[in-house]
Amino acid sequence: MTENTKSFGNKSEDLACKYLEEKKYKIIERNYMYGHGEIDIIAKSPDNCLVFVEVKSRTSTEFGQPEDSVTFSKRKQIRKIASAYLWERQIDNIECRIDVIAILFLKGEKPKINHFKDAF
Predict the structure, then answer these.
(1) Where are the alpha helices (DSSP H) in the chain?
(2) Which residues of the chain carry a pLDDT beneath 70?
(3) 3-state SS, residue 63
(4) Are 23 and 101 in contact (CB under 8 A)?
(5) How many other β-carbons are positioned within 10 Å of the β-carbon of residue 66?
(6) 101 beta partners
(7) 3-state SS, residue 93
(8) CA-to-CA distance for 65 and 102, rounded, in angstroms?
(9) Residue 64: helix, strand or coil by DSSP?
(10) 17: which of 31, 80, 103, 117 is 20 to 30 A away, CA to CA?
(11) Dihedrals φ, ψ of 35, to 5°?
């Protein structure tokens, strides 16, 4: 991963965190690693649901919308990592879901954020 890619990813995750905090979510953890995978953001929703958030961003729609890049294998990996997080932290009896926050950075425009709750 190049430094520019990493920087762009961090910028996108920072914006997603700000968006969630404005919606009264509490950020619990960022960049949770398990094995070779990662969950971008783990948060508590205003209704006390534990939310695992995948952030996807793009600077154009030439290859589709940002959310289009959450493939079947990526969804499978996120579920596995979310389960590992719950096991590792010994968390049970809490409602959980997986969200996707898609951010489109078009030149000269304010970033467009789409929040897909319970995405898969």
Answers:
(1) 3-22, 72-88
(2) 1-3
(3) coil
(4) no
(5) 23
(6) 55, 115
(7) coil
(8) 8
(9) coil
(10) 80
(11) 60, -130
Give whole-number Cα distances, 101 to 20, 51, 115, in Å.
Answer: 10, 12, 5
Amino acid 42: pLDDT? 98
Predicted pLDDT of residue 2 = 63
pLDDT at 75: 97
The 10 Å Cβ neighbour count of residue 67 is 17
CATH at residue 105: 3.40.1350.10
CA distances from 113 to 33, 37, 70, 107 (A): 25, 24, 16, 15
Q: Is 113 left (phi over 0), alpha (psi -120 to 50) or beta?
A: beta
pLDDT value of residue 8: 87
Domain of residue 78, residue span: 3-116
Rounded distance between C-alpha atoms, residue 79 and residue 39, angstroms: 10
Q: Looking at the 3D structure of the chain, how many domains does it have?
A: 1
pLDDT for the residue numbered 5: 77
